[in-house]
């Protein structure tokens, strides 16, 4: 009987001798511990995962041989490596910072403390890439495809008076800002959209909300903030032609000197509105303009 027990103990010792410990620490580029990192270990058909603690520590009980280790964390690039482990091993893993590029974020102050979940302002941004794709002739062309905007056109050519209606309100109920400074008239709140050259615009921020508490009673419809392009030493000349005798000329120059920067632009847009049509006179057709 004692001999049988002795054999069982030997078998048990042999089984436990096959398991080894793989442990390690996860740090960032500054040698600081990285906690809450997901550590996955694959060995053959077996897969196990753990989460690093506040010291960046983790450990696995594995069989000797080849293993694949993977470390994932939202703020760092994924780490993958294959190891040959035949005895208890301690490893150190350094993760590289991973920057996530989000879309452009617009922050509008409300001048009072508020929970972000309770702020209902809808901000629409028209960036320079979108403006270039649409090839607008005037500023009204930049805004015409935006949400809840209606352009009031008082003539056929781009240079004629054009105003905006935002969220169903009148043109006097929308405030225009140029780089955050009020641009619309204090007298009647109306701004002629044809006065703003398209070539100086970097992006347009449209706030679809009642902001009368911030910008006055004429901001019931919302606010349109025009951001101009950054100063660059450039000289630009543009020519454009279109139907109905449309002609467009634009010239601009921009530069900077120490803390002073300037941008000057000249635009001329002309459209006769005439088109050719045929008129039958007696037995022949003549071409007229209308």
UniProtKB/TrEMBL annotation:
Alphabetical GO CC annotations of the entry are: cell outer membrane
Subcellular location as annotated: Cell outer membrane
Q: Does the keyword Membrane apply?
A: yes
Q: What is its main location?
A: membrane
Offer one Pfam family short name for this entry: Plug
Topology in the membrane?
A: Multi-pass membrane protein
What are the entry keywords?
Cell outer membrane, Membrane, Transmembrane, Transmembrane beta strand, Transport
Q: Does the keyword Iron-sulfur apply?
A: no
- InterPro entries with a match to the protein in the record: CarboxyPept-like_regulatory (IPR008969), Plug_dom (IPR012910), Plug_dom_sf (IPR037066), TonB-dep_rcpt-like (IPR039426)
The TonB-dependent receptor plug domain sits at 118-223
Q: Gene3D superfamilies, per this entry? A: TonB-dependent receptor, plug domain (2.170.130.10)
Out of the domains of life, which is the source?
Bacteria
Please report which protein family the annotation says this sequence is part of: Belongs to the TonB-dependent receptor family.
What protein is this chain from?
CarboxypepD_reg-like domain-containing protein
């Amino acid at each position: 009987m004692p001999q049988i027990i002795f054999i069982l103990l030997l078998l048990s010792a042999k089984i436990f001798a096959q398991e080894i410990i793989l442990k390690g620490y996860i740090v960032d580029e500054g040698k600081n511990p990285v906690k809450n990192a997901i550590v996955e270990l694959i060995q053959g058909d077996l897969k196990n995962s753990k989460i690093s603690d506040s010291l960046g520590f983790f450990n696995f009980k594995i069989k000797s041989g080849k293993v694949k280790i993977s470390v994932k964390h939202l703020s760092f690039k994924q780490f993958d490596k294959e190891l040959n482990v035949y005895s208890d091993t301690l490893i150190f893993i350094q993760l590289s910072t991973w920057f996530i590029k989000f879309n452009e974020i617009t922050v509008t102050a409300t001048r009072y403390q508020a929970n972000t979940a309770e702020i209902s302002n809808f901000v629409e941004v028209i960036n320079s890439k979108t403006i270039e794709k649409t090839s607008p002739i005037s500023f009204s062309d930049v805004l015409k495809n935006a949400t809840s905007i209606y352009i009031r056109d008082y003539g056929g050519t781009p240079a004629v008076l054009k105003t905006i209606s935002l969220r169903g309100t009148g043109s006097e109920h929308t405030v225009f800002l140029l780089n955050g400074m009020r641009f619309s008239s204090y007298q009647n709140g109306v701004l002629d959209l044809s006065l703003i050259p398209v070539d100086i615009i970097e992006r347009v921020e449209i706030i679809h909300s009642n902001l009368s508490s911030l910008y006055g009673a004429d901001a019931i419809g919302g606010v349109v903030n025009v951001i101009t392009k950054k100063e660059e030493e450039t000289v630009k000349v543009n020519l454009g032609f279109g139907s109905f005798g449309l002609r467009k000329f634009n010239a601009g120059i921009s530069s900077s000197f120490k803390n002073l920067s300037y941008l000057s632009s000249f635009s001329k847009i002309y459209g006769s509105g005439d088109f050719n049509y045929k008129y039958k006179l007696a037995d022949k057709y003549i071409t007229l303009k209308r």
